[in-house]
Amino acid sequence: MTTLYNFNDLPRETVRPGVERAAFRGDHFMAVMNWLSPGMDVSPHSHTFEQVVMIVQGQVRFHVGDETFDAGPGSIIRIPPNVQHYAEPLGTEVALNLDIFAPVRADYLHLVEYQQANEPQP
């Protein structure tokens, strides 16, 4: 079954002041849209998942291990598993950062509970 969703209409979780996220999942992946506000607290972290980051809107300085990338709309960054990383929005515009994770993150399943009402779950 196929259902149309829009990230702007999905339930959002506030991660910390200045950071919100909403998610969508398939059988083998999870897409998480992040709204990053200028001046937010950064949060260096790592996880066991491979992550692909796509900048949809705004400008972001992405720190991945010892490297730094200034990224704008259309930029794609691969973050290997277990590498410390974090983002910081640049300028005055809210940045939209779409993360793709494979496999589905069990710790983010609460973000996609809305899909259970509309789609069978794997």
Summarize the structure in words.
This protein is mainly beta. It has a single domain (7-117), classed as Jelly Rolls (Sandwich). The chain is built from no helices and nine strands. The strands form two sheets. A six-stranded antiparallel beta sheet has the order 1-2-3-9-4-7, with no helix packed on it. It has a three-stranded antiparallel beta sheet with strand order 6-5-8, with no helix packed on it. Strand 2 (19-25) and strand 3 form a beta hairpin. The chain is globular and about 40 Å long. The model has no long low-confidence stretch (mean pLDDT 94).
List key phrases describing it:
122 residues, mainly beta, Jelly Rolls, six-stranded antiparallel sheet, 9 strands, 0% helix, 45% strand, globular
Please provide a brief summary of the model.
This protein has 122 residues and is mainly beta. It has strands at 13-16, 19-25, 30-36, 50-57, 59-64, 67-71, 76-79, 85-90, 95-102.
How far is the N terminus from the C terminus?
Answer: 12 Å
The parts where pLDDT drops under 50 for at least 5 residues are: none
Strand order of the largest sheet: 1-2-3-9-4-7
Q: Mean of residue pLDDT?
A: 94
* Radius of gyration over all CA atoms, rounded: 14 Å
CATH topology: Jelly Rolls
What is the beta-strand fraction? over 45%
Question: Can you tell me the CATH class?
Answer: Mainly Beta
CATH architecture annotation name: Sandwich
Shape: globular
